[in-house]
Amino acid sequence: MQKIRSGTIAALLLGSIASPLRVAAAPPVAAAIREAALQDSIAWDFTEGLTTEVGPRPAGTPQEARARDWAVAKLKSLGFSNVHADPYSMPVWVRGHDEARIVSPFPQHLALAALGNSASTPAKGIEGEVVYFPTLADLQAAPDGSLKGKIAFVSHAMTATQDGSSYSHFGATRRQGPSVASRKGAAAILIRSIGTDQHRLPHSGVQMWADGVKPIPAAALSTVDADQLTRIVSRGQPVRIHLILTSRMLKDQPSGNVIAELPGADPAAGIVLAACHLDSWDQGTGAIDDASGCGIITAAALHAAKAGSLRRTIRILMAGAEEVGGDGGRAYFATHGSERHVVAMESDFGADRVWRVDFKLPASYAAVSNRISNALAPLGIAPSRTAAGGGSDIEPLVKAGVPVLDLQQDGTRYFDIHHTADDTLDKVDRAQLQQNVAAWAVTLHEFATTTESLANK
Amino acid sequence: MQKIRSGTIAALLLGSIASPLRVAAAPPVAAAIREAALQDSIAWDFTEGLTTEVGPRPAGTPQEARARDWAVAKLKSLGFSNVHADPYSMPVWVRGHDEARIVSPFPQHLALAALGNSASTPAKGIEGEVVYFPTLADLQAAPDGSLKGKIAFVSHAMTATQDGSSYSHFGATRRQGPSVASRKGAAAILIRSIGTDQHRLPHSGVQMWADGVKPIPAAALSTVDADQLTRIVSRGQPVRIHLILTSRMLKDQPSGNVIAELPGADPAAGIVLAACHLDSWDQGTGAIDDASGCGIITAAALHAAKAGSLRRTIRILMAGAEEVGGDGGRAYFATHGSERHVVAMESDFGADRVWRVDFKLPASYAAVSNRISNALAPLGIAPSRTAAGGGSDIEPLVKAGVPVLDLQQDGTRYFDIHHTADDTLDKVDRAQLQQNVAAWAVTLHEFATTTESLANK
């Protein structure tokens, strides 16, 4: 997932939500939807099926194509309409062999994973001396050219937060570190995984080379291995590492967004968009990132439609490429950006419970958002004063002014497994998954059925 | 670690321990030893040093040789006497490349690790159809020859226990499963890791081929991957796996036991033996198995000696080879078995707190064991009615009748990380490590200083 926050607060609207005296009563149908959704099995079956029958599915690869076919068949079997894939093409970075070995002073292997778009070492690898930086700022402060031939190592440790906000700060080491190290002349860069666990499973993730920067081999050590390397460096002897990070870049590979709809009675009333992404990193089976998100929105849409006829169409977008730069979201916008979306929502932060709802809605949505808050409250979800931002799959829509609502999930343990081999089905808590379905179902139902005009102003 | 239990109960002695009215008061010195040992830093420094400066150290390899040199230097610097290595040689199984890929119906990789003494596949690997067995008993019930050319898969799941007793039952799948599968004609065997975690880090471990059985490739899937394969098998389609498990066997490789002593005033009074093992599995740095055990006994011996002059010699045995069949313990017995050991103890079950003390001591030890029970009680340790059994490093001594006492550690989380890449320093809880040192220190002190005669009858 990549969280996007607008950083502004829709103060007028939030004022009306935060005051309990002024809220409108939630319609009784919400209770029935919640009750049914809390017993849901569709989201689990979707998550179990995609992770078991497809497994890892990096964007633009044959595995993602299998995921697309799987999702199209699944959505058709569940009764969705207009189920199809919108194709596009994209460049694909493919991992080869990742290996790191301390040559001296204390020979041993380190567990690591190349970062997306890493340059490849020769098959035999490279060897260099480690230069240690406690934080990204320390790396940035290194004199230009001072790292010539060296392996930069940034060990900045991330701590867990419920709202995932620490990812933005600590993730900069992954996003910017490689370009900074290359500018300083480094032969390669190793970072401490952007993760909050203590297991020897490195966290992958994408990074983009800044303009004009020469790509270098770039990888994340597991948090445990980074701490080990830090201890070894602290002994004061020069530390030499042999590094093998092979990979290759492929041009114009096929990817595609899966679309499915539950049609509304009034096509002119606009589309309610629920998004997730089908692709995953290559090491795990992408259970929490983001099979569960796709399961949640699929199940929720069905529960919303079951509760009564829809005025607006609920559209599911399962983006084919999110992890490696948001190609799916951009492709969706290119094809569908001109259609009328009354709201866009995205589920891409695991499967743990929704604890907060954020809004970025026009003033004309005040009544509907009040009813949503009331319908969510029995699930333990409180409205916030933080503006919604959506995620990468709907980012172009949000930037273009489409209203957005975020059902914020508890991210306390999300970065324990995010982008690792450990992102597997067993990490999904079924009861919390069902709470997500209930939260999404009442929200989608409200947007899709309200007879009020939802003017995007 | 390999736990050995005698299965008998030293009823007479235990009777005298279990009754609080008859116990002798612990000497006041015990309180001072406990207090000092609970502030200990030696055990942590030892564990940190060995895991950082040596890392993984499979028995009979150059890494174990480095560990031996490291330990000899460390023990000398800490003031031990007669510090040296007793050399011996042993066969060594060396892991090559481990890889498993489901070919059909749902292509994906599985995380696994070859078991000790596994046969090697060709470099290109082998391919076969999976035959699923829920338990070892189901595999045993398969008709002879029924697995010809197939890959047997036993998915028996282990559950955690505080005393580690479930390892004996579930570990049989690893110890016996490969030989059983080979007898049935299987081309290879995969087992669910003998572990209690949910991470994609397979649990290695040794297995010995039964007499006359042809070695086949044998490996443990991570618990997560075993559950994934079970789900895939449950879909009812034939499951084919491509398996690469390369390895090699080396004859007569050098290994050695590190010995160190804190001399007692009366050589005729016998030796108090405290054992651990220096070797580890190859994937992790062997922090809980068994660097921490070596740290505990080293620190405890020093605290015991600091509290007053010793009558009996406390001898440290750091076995060079435990994991792969107990070569170190046998070599120790061959060299030192005829010396008078008044007691043998071993620390090889992690670094979590001691919660119970087991005895298998002659009747003449009643007073000393009562004082030990009293000295342990303030640490939250209760005497049990289960007979002590020791571990592999002292097994030949125990079999020969040497009295034994077990300071049983809490094993609830031990099998989460046992024999995996995750056996690293961060898993050691410093406060619990110090409680171990305190328990060991008062126990060693009592055995080494008591003026009573400890007759081995």
UniProtKB/TrEMBL annotation, chains A, B:
InterPro entries: CPQ, Peptidase_M28. Keywords: Carboxypeptidase, Endoplasmic reticulum, Glycoprotein, Golgi apparatus, Hydrolase, Lysosome, Metal-binding, Metalloprotease, Protease, Secreted, Signal, Zinc, Zymogen. It is found in: Endoplasmic reticulum; Golgi apparatus; Lysosome; Secreted. Residues 1-25 form the signal peptide. Its main location: endoplasmic reticulum. It holds the Pfam family Peptidase_M28. Residues 257-441 form the Peptidase M28 domain. The keyword Nuclease does not apply. Homodimer. The monomeric form is inactive while the homodimer is active. PANTHER family: CARBOXYPEPTIDASE Q, PROTEASE FAMILY M28 PLASMA GLUTAMATE CARBOXYPEPTIDASE-RELATED. This is Carboxypeptidase Q.
